[in-house]
Specification:
- The chain is built from eight helices and two strands; from the N terminus they run H-H-H-H-H-H-H-H-E-E.
- By secondary structure, the chain is mainly alpha-helical.
- InterPro entries: TPR-like_helical_dom_sf, TPR_2, TPR_domain_protein, TPR_rpt.
- Keywords: Repeat, TPR repeat.
């Protein structure tokens, strides 16, 4: 089994919030407070609005990390989704989105929802193709589902990015025999099904596939079938 890091990405450093422009407080009046908030929003520049959105996304991501640390995986998923929705409007929010997708994947791994984990890792890798943690987590999910060839592909990609990665090398050493065993098993199952199908057809004529033998031509290497009583 691929060992995954037990915790999500550490939250990004929170961007500094812009200071509020001077505005009169409406004496606790809700209508006055709403007007002050609207005036504050109107006074912000586009850059300040982007920084505010990034800060809110990081806050939601940090809250997701807190829930994850407490083992509250469903709540963590919700917070990461909020961070994703906020950062979706940011032109330079790929770092937040890729981290949140990767963090959602480890939540799904903990919940045993391996298909969902794979989908989240793939989304993270679409945003950041060299994201090692997402590759490790996707490999873990593939192995859980016995998708050994896919897990091997992720480990090889890790080694392309980090040739000295011991974890990926050990995983390949373990996964390759499992993949070969599964391929052999699948081949045997396929041949058994083909044999059953052949027998169902030939049985109408009082024959079976055992009446036919494959003979290899030593000159061409091709095979021909010979009938045997």
């Amino acid at each position: 089994m691929v060992v995954i890091e037990p915790e999500p990405e550490p939250e990004c450093e929170e961007a500094a919030r812009p200071s509020s422009p001077q505005a009169s407080v409406g004496g606790g009046d809700p209508a006055g407070a709403e007007e002050d908030e609207e005036a504050f929003e109107d006074a912000l520049t586009d850059e300040q609005l982007r920084e505010k959105a990034r800060s809110q996304a990081n806050d939601a991501k940090a809250e997701g990390n807190r829930h994850f640390g407490a083992g509250e995986y469903e709540d963590a998923l919700s917070q990461y989704e909020i961070a994703l929705q906020i950062s979706a409007e940011l032109e330079s929010g790929e770092d937040i989105r890729s981290a949140c997708h990767s963090n959602r994947s480890i939540c799904f791994l903990k919940l045993g929802k391996y298909d969902e984990a794979i989908k989240e890792c793939t989304k993270a890798l679409e945003l950041n193709p060299s994201y090692l943690k997402a590759l490790v987590r996707r490999g873990e999910a593939h192995e859980k589902l016995e998708h050994y060839d896919e897990a091997i592909a992720d480990m090889k990609k890790i080694l392309e990015l980090d040739p000295s990665n011991v974890q990926a090398k050990r995983s390949l050493f373990r996964l390759e025999p499992l993949a070969a065993e599964k391929r052999e098993k699948m081949k045997e199952e396929m041949l058994a099904k083909l044999k059953d199908l052949g027998n169902s057809v030939l049985g109408r004529f009082g024959m079976s596939v055992d009446n036919f033998k494959a003979v290899k031509d030593p000159n061409t290497g091709s095979y021909s079938l010979s009938f045997q009583q």
